[in-house]
Structures are given as structure tokens and as C-alpha cells.
UniProtKB/TrEMBL annotation:
<dbReference type="InterPro" id="IPR051782">
    <property type="entry name" value="ABC_Transporter_VariousFunc"/>
</dbReference>
<dbReference type="InterPro" id="IPR027417">
    <property type="entry name" value="P-loop_NTPase"/>
</dbReference>
<keyword id="KW-0067">ATP-binding</keyword>
<feature type="domain" description="ABC transporter">
    <location>
        <begin position="13"/>
        <end position="244"/>
    </location>
</feature>
<dbReference type="Pfam" id="PF00005">
    <property type="entry name" value="ABC_tran"/>
</dbReference>
<keyword id="KW-0547">Nucleotide-binding</keyword>
<protein>
    <submittedName>
        <fullName>ABC transporter ATP-binding protein</fullName>
    </submittedName>
</protein>
<dbReference type="InterPro" id="IPR003593">
    <property type="entry name" value="AAA+_ATPase"/>
</dbReference>
<keyword id="KW-0813">Transport</keyword>
<dbReference type="InterPro" id="IPR003439">
    <property type="entry name" value="ABC_transporter-like_ATP-bd"/>
</dbReference>
<dbReference type="GO" id="GO:0005524">
    <property type="term" value="F:ATP binding"/>
</dbReference>
């Protein structure tokens, strides 16, 4: 839940009236608005092709809005490129690492790129390695790591930066149960330090438990928005036991002209 105090702060992410996509003639996103406050975790949900990645590309400044705007930490990319870029960290679903850098070298390189002070950064690297059970792998090259371990390196790099806005694409796939626990703990920590998180995932049970608010996208339209409880109500479920999967199915069915089952 957002507190009144959080509301008074500058949103980490403010998307308003965003229409955008790959061609002017057929936009993918239609008049999308999302606000994420410091310390909040907002879940981005939608079927394959709903527009989640396209929304993320707009937030990362890789695509230009056809209408509307995207603000990160209060600025648009045009207004202040440096603040915008340094306030955002992104963890893609597919890990991309430099083959010639060890895990620790990746982390040190990130620390340098973001101008972090060396001693506290090294301490945080040690803590992150413990959280993700990666201490023994700090000197390993990416080729010798499993997929889940590579993903952990990507997450550790993003968490090291403690950006205003952390965007994470489908983080739970490929992680072992202890790594998922470590991730959830680490996400709680970065939120407590004031970072906002936008997390795109198909694992709705995790978002039901952890998200402050959810955005449900369907064919580029926002079809529901609010706390998990509010989204369930919007789907027609008043029963506290209804799952987010139930609500999501009902919302999609209703958006496609079917009947909500709530
Ligand atoms: N490079 C591209 N060029 C043209 N159209 C694209 C491109 N990438 C995606 N699209 C289209 O944009 C729409 C939204 O796709 P997007 O990748 O944003 O969905 P998504 O919600 O991220 O899906 P998924 O859960 O499968 O990752 C789809 O209709 C897709 O075909």
C-alpha cells in the first residue's frame, strides 16, 4: 500500500498517456499510465504479446512515445539523459554477460560505471554474493556458470546499483528455490532503501504475495490496476480466497468479450 508520505514524493516512474509501438499506424500500447513510488513493487502482468516488453523498452528509452510521456525520477529522457539513465537498472530475462570478465569483475565494472565508492561497493558485493550463495563463484567466468547462476549475476549487478527504478523481467524462472528466497529478501532490502521495482512476471502467485500494486495489460490496454485485492475486486471476485490467477483469467475473458466468473 502507498502511504500518504510516499504519495508526496516524486514517483520513481510516471508513465502518462503512453501510446507507442513499432509503427505509427498500429501502436502496441494505448494510452498507458503507470505510477510507481519509491519503495513500491509494482507487478506488470499480461498474456504473451500483451505489450509488457514494449512498455519496458519505452521506459528504458529504447523506443520513443508516439503520445504521452515517461518520467523516471521526475525527468524525461529529453530533459535530463544522465539522471534518467543513472536512475534505471534493468535485468532482462536472458542473462547477457561478458565472456572475459569474472563475476566479481562484472560487479566491479558496474560499480565503476555508476561511480560507486569502492569500499562500500566491495562490501555490498560480498553481501550480495552471500545472499545469492555465489561467494564461491566470484572468480568464475560466465561460460562455467549455469543459467540460473548467470541470472543471479545480472540481479546482483542491478541490486549493487540501488537505482531509483529497478526493472526486472521474469526473474523467477530458472532460479532454484533458495535463490528465489534470496531474491525476494534482496528485493525487500532494496525497497526498504527506497528503490522502486517494476517486475514483469507470469508467476502470479509470487506477485499476489509481494506486489504493492499490479498493472494488468491486454492487447496494449491497461485492463486493471491497483493492489492485488483491488484487481481481484475489479475482476469480480469478492472472495478473499480468490487467487490472482483466477482474477487474471476473468479479466482477460471479460476484455475479450467473455463473461467474468467472479
Ligand atoms: N520488434 C517488433 N516489431 C514489430 N512488432 C513487435 C516487435 N516486438 C513485439 N512486437 C509486437 O508487439 C506486441 C507486444 O509484444 P511484447 O513483446 O511487448 O509482448 P509481451 O507482453 O512482452 O509478451 P511476452 O510475455 O511473450 O514476452 C505483439 O503483438 C508483438 O507481436
Amino acid at each position: 500500500m502507498i502511504s500518504r508520505q510516499a504519495n508526496a514524493r516524486v514517483p520513481a516512474l510516471a508513465i502518462s498517456g503512453l501510446t507507442g509501438g513499432y509503427s505509427q499506424r498500429r501502436p502496441v500500447l494505448h494510452d498507458l499510465s503507470i505510477t510507481v513510488y519509491p519503495g513500491e513493487l509494482v507487478g506488470l502482468i499480461g498474456l504473451n504479446g500483451a505489450g509488457k516488453s514494449t512498455a519496458i523498452k519505452h521506459i528504458l528509452g529504447l523506443m520513443v512515445p508516439q503520445k504521452g510521456e515517461v518520467r523516471v525520477a521526475g525527468v524525461t529522457l529529453e530533459e535530463n539523459r544522465e539522471v534518467y539513465r543513472s536512475s534505471t537498472a534493468y535485468v532482462p530475462e536472458q542473462p547477457t554477460l561478458y565472456p572475459n570478465l569474472t563475476v566479481k569483475e562484472h560487479l566491479r565494472w558496474t560499480a565503476m560505471a555508476y561511480h560507486l565508492e569502492e569500499a562500500p561497493a566491495l562490501a555490498t558485493i560480498g553481501e550480495l554474493a552471500e545472499t545469492f550463495r555465489m561467494t564461491d563463484a566470484l572468480n568464475a567466468l560466465p561460460d562455467t556458470l549455469s543459467k540460473g547462476m548467470k541470472q543471479k549475476v545480472m540481479l546482483m549487478n542491478a541490486l549493487l546499483v540501488r537505482p531509483a527504478l529497478l526493472i526486472i523481467d521474469e526473474p523467477f524462472l530458472g532460479l532454484d528455490p533458495l535463490a528465489i528466497r534470496g531474491l525476494v529478501t534482496a528485493l525487500d532490502e532494496v525497497r526498504a532503501q527506497g528503490s522502486a521495482i517494476l517486475l514483469s512476471s507470469h508467476i502470479l502467485s509470487a506477485l499476489d504475495r509481494k506486489a504493492d500494486r499490479l498493472v494488468v495489460l491486454h492487447k496494449g490496454n491497461r485492463i486493471a490496476w491497483g493492489t492485488p485485492q483491488e484487481v481481484k475486486l475489479q475482476a469480480g471476485f469478492e472472495d478473499a480466497k480468490a487467487t490472482l490467477d483466477d482474477a487474471f483469467e476473468a479479466l482477460v475473458s471479460s476484455a475479450e468479450g467473455g463473461h467474468s466468473r467472479g
